[in-house]
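Protocol step 4 of 6: structure prediction from sequence.
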Amino acid sequence: MDTPVAGVFFFLPYIIESCIIDIVKECVLPESSVIDSVQASLSMLLLKLIGNKRLSQISQYDQEPGLGLFAGLNVLPKNAFMNTYSCLSSESTLLAFQEKIIKQFRTVYSQFYTGKFINLDFHSIPHYGDESEMEKIWCGARGKTMKGANTVFAQDSESNAILYTRADILRKEQSQEIKKFITYWKTITNKVDETLVFDCKFTTYKVLDELTSDNIKFITLRTRSAGLIASSEKIPKDQWKKVQLAIPKRKYNKVSVYESNVTLSNCENSFRQIIVKDHGRVKPTFIITNNSELTLPKILQVYAKRWHIENKLSELVSFFNLNALSSPLMIRIHFDILWTMIADSLYHVFANDLRRFEKEPAPTVFQKFINMPGKVVYDGNRFVIKIRKRGHTPILKSVEKLAGPFQVPWLNNLSVEIIWTP
C-alpha cells in the first residue's frame, strides 16, 4: 500500500511510550458503533501530525489504506464523522483528559517540564460565519474586532512545551482565567512554584493582589498612562541604572531602569515596579512583579523572552492551522486545540531525538523528516514501512526507537518495522 506521508509512522513508538491510548480509554472518550475511541483519536492525531488544514478536507486522505493503518483502520473516517465526533464529548471530560495527558508527559518526558517560568497568553480565533453565538473579540490575525473564539495557552518558558489550553472564554470572565490555570496546575504539581509571566491585558490589578496574597509569583506589565509617563520623566538622571541584558543578538541590550515599590488601585499589597527606557521604544515600559527574589537583569530577561509564546502560537497557526475553526461550537474548538497540543508535544519529543535538530520547530521537522512517501507491506506476521533513503536518513537511522521493530497494541500487538530502501 502506497502512503503519501510514511514518516508519520515515526511517531508510533512515542505514542506508545507516552500511554496516550491508555488515557483515551481511561477517560472514556466518545466512540461510535463502528469506530472506537482509540481509532477516532488516532485519526484526529494523525491529521494534526501531518498539518492538515481542516477536518472537512480529510477527503484527500480518506482513501489511503496506509494512513488508515496508523489508526488501526482500513481507511481513515469520512469527514462527516470527524466533524461531528467531538460533539459527543463534554468540557469536564476534555479537562480531565488534558490533566492526565500532561501528568503523563511530565512523568515520561520530564526534561520538557522543568522551567521556572510559565508564559500565558490569550489567542483569538476568528470566525467568518454569519450564524453563531460567539462574542465579538479583538482578532489580531485580522487587525479588527469580529466574532471569534477566545482561547488561552500556557507554555513552559524553557522548553516551549504547551502546558494548558482552554476555549469558551467570555470577555467578562477572562480576567479570572489565570485562577483557573492555577487551580489546574495545582492538580498537576500540587503547588505553583513557577513565576507566571503575562501581559497587562491578561488580568486585573485586583486579581494580581489576590495572587500576591496567595503567594503566587508573577511578572507582568502595568498599563501605560499619560500620568505614569509624565512621572517617569521627572525622575532625575542619576537615579536611573544601566542594565546589560544577556540576550544574544538583541539590538538594545543595554537599557536604563528605575525600580520602586508601588501600591496599585484597589490593592492591599505593594509590588516592585521597574521602569525601562532606552530599549528601542519611544515610551517607557512599566514592569510590575511580586517576586522579590529575582534580580533586575533576570526580571527583564524573563519578560523579554515572553515572545516565545507568541512564536509558539504563530507556529500553531501556520502548521497546525489553529485558526482554521472546526466549528462555531466551543466544545469542538476545545477538542481541536487539545489534540493540537498533543501533536505539538510529540513533535518536541521526536525532535529531541534528532541530533542537531533538537530545537527545530514542527514545520521544519515535518518537511525534513516526516513528509516522505513510502509503502506499507503486510507479510502475514508484521507490518513493514518501506521508505527510500533521503539526505536526512542517517539522522533518522540513529534514532533508537526506530532502529528495530516495535509492537503496536491497537494493531493486535503486531510488530511494525521501518526499513530503508535504496
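Step 5 (inspection) to follow. The radius of gyration is 24 Å.
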